TrEMBL record:
This is Chitinase. The keyword Glycosyltransferase does not apply. It comes from Vibrio tetraodonis subsp. pristinus. The keyword Hydrolase does not apply. Residues 1-24 form the signal peptide. Residues 135-166, 181-203 are annotated as: Disordered. Residues 152-166 have a biased composition (Basic and acidic residues).
Length: 265
């Protein structure tokens, strides 16, 4: 049975205003909008409950909040579906932008998956520092499995899709991309890859060589060369030279990975 995969996007515009008169005038002005992107037509009706807030650490706490539902009908085309409203606020230097997603089956309170986290924001200086707290669910390597990543362009003009900390110019947009796990309604089987029925992300040596991989501690990957699964235990080496650290094949792969066996039910 095919899996229905949804990607949830948070689009964030950042502005930073500098005042020469006082330090309190160093402000960031975030603008955030949440969207839902479907990679496949859903087989069930879904409602994505969203919640956002602007939190100013140095000046009064929560400034703005916004709740909005995004309904997705069964059979809807694979496309991007956005909320209508944008949350705006001002952060005096340090703060947080909260984003919460709750995926409901038929909008009846049956939660299929959820993600709740914050992006840490620092508006000091010419560029805003942006750091997504991915809660151990970073999905920056392939963007095709359950997890989350940040999609933006940094101050050097480098486009990235990962979960690291980046300096982002005021005018650039940031997308927070969340892929919920819908296996509870689509079933565990993966007929497109019977050797990888749980749909783990495939280890990609080319991504490692091109420095676009983002494997993290505890992540489980599928090695198509031998149809085995491996769990990353040292993320710096998991993203290092495949000739040394490719799971199952690198000269020192056991320094970076453990062979993984699914626990029995």
């Amino acid at each position: 049975m095919k899996k229905n995969i949804i990607i949830t996007l948070g689009v964030v515009g950042l502005g930073c205003v500098f005042s020469a008169n006082t330090l309190a005038g160093i402000n960031g002005n975030p603008r955030q909008k949440l969207c839902v992107k479907l990679l496949e037509s859903p087989s069930e009706n879904l409602v994505i409950e969203t919640f956002q807030s602007v939190y100013d650490t140095n000046n009064g706490g929560t400034e703005e909040t916004l709740s909005e539902d995004i309904p997705i009908q069964a059979g809807s085309p694979a496309a991007e579906y956005c909320g209508h409203d944008i949350i705006e606020g001002k952060i005096n230097g340090d703060g947080k932008m909260k984003a919460e997603f709750n995926v409901l089956l038929n909008g009846e309170g049956n939660t299929i998956d959820e993600f709740k986290s914050e992006s840490f924001f620092n508006g000091h200086g010419q560029n805003n520092e942006w750091d997504l707290d991915e809660k151990g669910q970073c999905n920056g390597s392939s963007q095709q499995n359950p997890g989350v990543y940040m999609d933006a362009t940094d101050k050097n003009g480098h486009s990235f899709k990962d979960c690291g900390s980046h300096e982002i110019p005021d005018e650039n947009l940031v997308k927070i991309v969340f892929t919920p796990n819908l296996s509870s309604i689509s079933g565990p089987d993966n007929p497109e890859s019977p050797d990888n029925p749980n749909g783990y992300e495939e280890y990609d040596p080319e991504a490692v060589i091109n420095e676009t991989s983002d494997y993290h501690d505890g992540q489980i990957v599928f090695q198509p060369k031998n149809t085995l699964t491996y769990q990353c235990k040292w993320e710096e080496w998991c993203n290092d030279d495949p000739s040394f650290y490719e799971p199952g094949y690198g000269l020192q792969w056991q320094e970076a990975w453990n062979e993984y066996t699914e626990p029995e039910d």
